[in-house]
Write a structure and sequence with these properties.
The complex is a heterodimer of chains A (144) and B (453).
Chain A (H helix, E strand, L loop, with lengths): L1 H4 L2 H9 L2 E3 L4 E3 H8 L5 H23 L3 H23 L13 H28 L13
Antiparallel strand pairs in A: 1-2
Chain B lengths: L1 H15 L9 E2 L10 H15 L2 H5 L1 E11 L4 E8 L5 E8 L4 E11 L3 H6 L6 E6 L6 E7 L2 E9 L28 H7 L5 H4 L14 E4 L17 E2 L2 E4 L11 H6 L10 E9 L19 E10 L2 E11 L13 E5 L4 E2 L1 E7 L1 H13 L12 H10 L11 E2 L10 E2 L1 H14 L6 E2 L5 E2 L9
Parallel strand pairs in B: 2-10
Antiparallel strand pairs in B: 1-11, 2-3, 3-4, 4-5, 5-6, 6-7, 7-8, 9-11, 12-13, 12-17, 13-14, 14-15, 16-21, 17-20, 18-19
The chains are: A mainly alpha (144), B alpha+beta (453).
């Protein structure tokens, strides 16, 4: 279960299926990324970069095998995904998509992404700490 | 894992099958229920008031104009008794089912507006509401400006009124009413604020808590709809429930309530007009179908006006899907109407019409009120054009159509930019040029009158 939740593909999937609900138009966030990309919309660029980082890490994971670099790339990827969503809603000065935060299904999907992405973020932070020389970090299980 | 997946699927199913939310509900019902043992009830009330009021005030009470609002299934009543001196002065007491009073106040409403304006014009309340204790030793005064309570100017004597600050959100006058009988919506809105919903046994609805979520119970606008009370008979009314929505969420309006306002302005000698507005997704870019930053496809809406002497009604009405995300499948979804007051626009075409044509417009809108919204086949532009063309049968406004992004069947749609391009070309060609407005960047429409009951 943990492996599934902390997999970058799960994070990407939950990110892309976030539903945006506008006053007259709505759809999966994937659509907004695709539509904005040819016009260099900032949320599209950050979102696609975040996805690219996470996918790149999956392809390279056999080489790096969950080491510090891998964790750092994952963290960079997830921060970019968060930034993409933040920029999308922050640039929406007319609150055109505010209903996303009030309607049940968009709320659930947004919450799902946030939970999974936070879990993923924390997991990668723990990996970083584990491999660092930080003495404050104590592994959760120590076998004698 | 399997259980989690099943639960998640179930949750999604429940969410997608959720009933359409009624965004603004105003439920009022008048109960024919009489108070049990009315004689005894009135005797107890009179005894309580005799002990609490100064004898001069007691003499002024008109028990024939008393009306009770029922709470807690009849365990608690708010009884309003008119004073003979003025229609704007009355007494409000809280009693149990037997008429034993526990709390009361004398209310005086002072309207700052000109009396003629108040009686003849739809207005929001401007004035003072002064509440005295029953012995008139203490008082509290509220100033109301344009239907909003001015908290800072609230003057409170040493009266022990439990304000609790269970204060309602500042008064939002959703209905502008003509106060023919001297009592308006805003008046009542503020008055019952003095009685906390908790003590009236009023629970908030929809899982939302009072006061944060703007649920409240209020009395009828005109408590004397019933006429004079018979001897020893106190009419009982159910409280009126009003649910509010965040204006950012574009609350749906009752189209019929909005259109009814035009009935209050006489047809004889009336000047009427209909104006179609288009708001481009991106200002200054008439060829852009979509605002790539926020996903807005633009908007088309209507403004209808009726003027007769000093009576004037203006409504800005737009057609929307009830929930925007449901349009993603490009299939018909439940629709709603919203008040587009203050909405941005990039072009408009105005047409003066006769009162008879205005009735045609109203009838067309009412006939279309149940129509589903379809982003590619029946959107806001389709609606606005259909209504607009209902009074341009010989010369309908026909706009270029485009295939919108995401449309896979090649269906051409009417869009705000199509309307903009048509109006721009008409202006260039000098066709109805005087009636076409093309602001430099964008303009904003005025306020709407609001609903009429």
């Amino acid at each position: 279960m943990k492996k599934l939740i902390t997999h970058p593909l799960t994070v990407i999937a939950t990110f892309l299926i976030i539903i945006i609900s506008g006053q007259q138009f709505g759809g999966f966030y994937l659509l907004y990324l695709i539509l904005g990309l040819p016009h260099a919309a900032i949320h599209s660029i950050t979102g696609v970069c975040g996805i690219a980082l996470l996918l790149f890490n999956i392809l390279q994971s056999k080489l790096w095998n969950r080491n510090q670099i891998s964790a750092l790339i994952n963290l960079g990827g997830i921060v970019l995904l968060w930034l993409s969503l933040f920029l999308f809603f922050n640039n929406d000065k007319s609150n055109y998509n505010i209903a996303t935060f009030y309607q049940l299904l968009p709320q659930i999907l947004l919450l799902l992404f946030l939970i999974i992405s936070i879990y993923f973020f924390v997991d990668n932070i723990l990996i970083l700490l584990k491999h660092s020389k930080n003495k404050l970090y104590k592994p959760p299980f120590q076998s004698n | 894992m399997k259980n989690i997946l099943i639960s998640a699927c179930l949750l999604v199913l429940i969410a997608s099958c959720k009933k359409e939310q009624v965004s603004q509900s105003v439920n009022a019902s008048v109960s024919e229920n009489a108070i049990k043992n009315e004689d005894k009830y009135l005797q107890n009330v009179q005894r309580y008031l005799m002990n609490s009021l100064a004898s001069t005030d007691f003499q002024l009470l008109d028990f024939k104009r008393a009306i009770a609002t029922k709470f807690k299934n009849g365990k608690t009543y708010l009884l309003r008794v008119q004073m003979k001196t003025s229609l704007n002065q009355f007494l409000l007491i809280k009693t149990d089912s037997l008429g034993n009073g526990s709390k009361g106040m004398i209310v005086t409403i002072t309207n700052k507006e000109n009396e003629n304006n108040v009686k003849n014009k739809f207005h929001s309340f401007n004035g003072n509401i002064t509440v005295y204790s029953l012995d008139r030793k203490n008082f509290s005064s509220l100033q109301i400006t344009n239907g909003y309570r001015d908290k800072r100017k609230r003057v409170i004597g040493d009266m022990m009124i439990t304000t609790n600050d269970n204060t309602l959100p500042d008064v939002t006058v959703t209905a502008y009413i003509s106060a023919y009988d001297g009592i308006s919506y805003a008046d009542w809105y503020n008055l019952l604020d003095f009685y906390s919903p908790q003590e009236l046994g009023v629970s908030s609805g929809g899982g939302s808590g009072y006061p944060e979520t703007s649920y409240g119970y209020y009395s009828r606008v005109n408590p004397y709809d019933y006429g004079y009370t018979e001897d020893n008979h106190v009419p009982v009314q159910e409280p009126k429930q009003i649910a509010y929505e965040d204006p950012l969420l574009l609350p749906s309006i009752s189209l019929f309530d909005y259109l009814r306002c035009f009935d209050y302005v006489s047809d004889i000698g009336a000047i009427c007009s209909i104006e179609i507005f288009t708001d481009l997704p991106v200002n200054g870019e008439p060829n852009t179908f979509f605002n790539w930053n926020d996903g807005s496809p633009g908007h088309t809406f209507l403004q209808i006006k009726k003027l007769n002497g000093d009576q004037f009604v203006q409504q800005n009405i737009g057609f929307y899907p009830n929930e925007g995300w449901k349009t993603m499948l490009y299939t018909p979804v439940a629709s709603k109407f919203a008040d587009d007051n203050g909405h941005e626009f990039n072009a408009s075409l105005k047409m003066n019409i006769t009162p008879a044509q205005l009735h045609t417009v109203i009838a067309t809108m009412e006939n279309l009120s149940d129509t589903s919204y379809d982003i590619d086949q029946y959107n806001c532009t389709d609606f606005a054009l259909q209504v607009f063309n209902s009074v341009r049968v010989d010369n309908p406004l026909i706009i270029p159509q485009y295939i919108i992004p995401g449309e896979t069947y090649g269906i051409s749609s009417k869009t705000p930019q199509g309307l903009y391009q048509k109006l721009w070309s008409m202006k260039e060609a000098g066709v109805e040029a005087d009636n076409i407005t093309l602001p430099n960047v964008c303009g904003y429409v005025g306020d709407s009158h609001g609903p009429c009951n």
